[in-house]
What we know:
With 547 residues, this protein is mainly α. The protein is built from 22 helices and no strands. α4 runs antiparallel to α6 and α11 crosses α17.
Amino acid sequence: xxxxxxxxxxxxxxxxxxxxxxxxxxxxxxxxxxxxxxxxxxxxxxxxxxxxxxxxxxxxxxxxxxxxxxxxxxxxxxxxxxxxxxxxxxxxxxxxxxxxxxxxxxxxxxxxxxxxxxxxxxxxxxxxxxxxxxxxxxxxxxxxxxxxxxxxxxxxxxxxxxxxxxxxxxxxxxxxxxxxxxxxxxxxxxxxxxxxxxxxxxxxxxxxxxxxxxxxxxxxxxxxxxxxxxxxxxxxxxxxxxxxxxxxxxxxxxxxxxxxxxxxxxxxxxxxxxxxxxxxxxxxxxxxxxxxxxxxxxxxxxxxxxxxxxxxxxxxxxxxxxxxxxxxxxxxxxxxxxxxxxxxxxxxxxxxxxxxxxxxxxxxxxxxxxxxxxxxxxxxxxxxxxxxxxxxxxxxxxxxxxxxxxxxxxxxxxxxxxxxxxxxxxxxxxxxxxxxxxxxxxxxxxxxxxxxxxxxxxxxxxxxxxxxxxxxxxxxxxxxxxxxxxxxxxxxxxxxxxxxxxxxxxxxxxxxxxxxxxxxxxxxxxxxxxxxxxxxxxxxxxxxxxx
Length: 547
């Protein structure tokens, strides 16, 4: 008896099936990143609004705005912020003061998201199921990159819209938003390439992050003096500096920002065709001796698995703290020379006899926000372990849920304390090197003063993890950013006290200008611990869920 063979599908039906498969891949990728895209778009748009409104409040007239250009003579300010350009306009100031921050945030998100969609899907085995459909691996990768590009475009459009509605020039805002999108897409392309080179997601994203960090250091070197200005054309951060979105735009910089991601994406698609699914161009060695250290328990294993992330945070915060401290004297001198700025600071309640200490207190709040973000992402590592399916294997052994999650909580708090101490030391060292008269106690107090808020946000992250695990990172990060913005912009614009009280940062004393307030610190610490306990209890009762 012979079996009848099925008739092959008509040629016209094959492209239709391929297009349906590609559309399904796009929908899956969009579903995986839609929450992060929305949170980042709203956060960056709000940050852009804060920049413009703060500028309008601090520099109400043309005379006061012209004084900002004097910062171009200060090497420390130039290295961090870039050379002032069109800072007599709201959009130009926002691009100079916050452009590199917005670009960095978008770039980091883009490379992490790309690593998750590409190498992360291969590590979990879901990529094999996708490629069982009639689609080539390179084509699937291209579709995923296009989804990331669309998400990045949404973020850039949100920034441009926020700047325009806040009073910045519409054309310049659109150009700046396009530049931020191109910057983020460039590092998405970098991670797409590294995801083909390395077989572990951590190495792929870590290498891409190292490229981002190196490009920022190159930009700092380029801005340190006019003779090194040509170096800006070698780094995406420099391309953003050269964009000049709000006056005399340089289209060559925009061309680089748009062409680089296209070229990197094409390279990634080509490299994908040269390897098997799950493999890499640089494969790990099977002959290395087994590393059995830090495998004696779940907390030790979690520490081992996140050492690279902690090292990255330490490096980034240290460099930023050094530069922040080094400009303390420049800020103090600027305030002493500008009467309008002194009046503005006086309205905000600053003690003009202690401007340096006030600057440290303001920077302490910023480092507090960074520490909160780190803690949220650290609890997110626990969620990632669960989503990847590794938690189920751990719980089959004599390991209780509260012990496993408690280890992650302790690591998050311990790492936050380490980061705070390193940041404070770097701020003090940078200030002393820059010629400012800063005591070590004041520098440490300004940063350590924010730790109660870090405990509170860590507790919130654990509570969200226990009750709504898919929102483990997104919700607490949004709360942290909103709380910081309420404190900074609300104080500057005289918002009602009931609104300001919603921010935990508002309940902190401005150390070292003011003495440390133990009661609010104790209340926030207690609330954070109670939230963490509630989160652990909720985690004990719910099912383990995947991604």
